[in-house]
Request: fold
Amino acid sequence: MRRGIAAIGLTCAIVAGCASPPAKFYTLSAGPADLNAGTSKLAVVVGPISIPATVDMPQIVVTKGLNQVSADQFNLWASPLRSNIAQVVCANLAALLETPRVSSIASVSTIDADYRVAIDVQTFESSPGDAATLSALWVVRRVSDGKSTSGRTAVREPSSEKSYDALAAAHSRALKRLSEDIAAAIRALDRERS
Reply:
């Protein structure tokens, strides 16, 4: 009887020791919003957005070296990365341009838009304890006459803490910088129109 109880106890200990840690979910966030925003009538549609295939998955992909990455099975994006990037850029642009009329391509017709923004994220690297790196090409097109301007934003945001929370925050800061560049291009095109 004692052997049976000991065997059951040993089996339970082994099973408990082999249990996987619970998955943790992370999301990107927009920069602080100005509560007095909303004075502009500009309408902006964001999309399409493309991201590298290597990071287009639920797992947070961590850069291990120059030619190696690893998909972390227990640290995941809470929503598809492409959708989360679109959501954050839309929220940032709404605050920066002081307009509530910023939406992703999936939710709004371009007929109602003044400007359309396409973003090609070429680099989205995650190095916990080091930095979040973002490189993106973008095009802003004025819908009324098709005039466009393009640019490239390259950002390396430090992430001194070796946590995924800090890494997601660093990526969020990088997306804010991308949004600032796009907002500046929209303002420049809008001044030309006036």
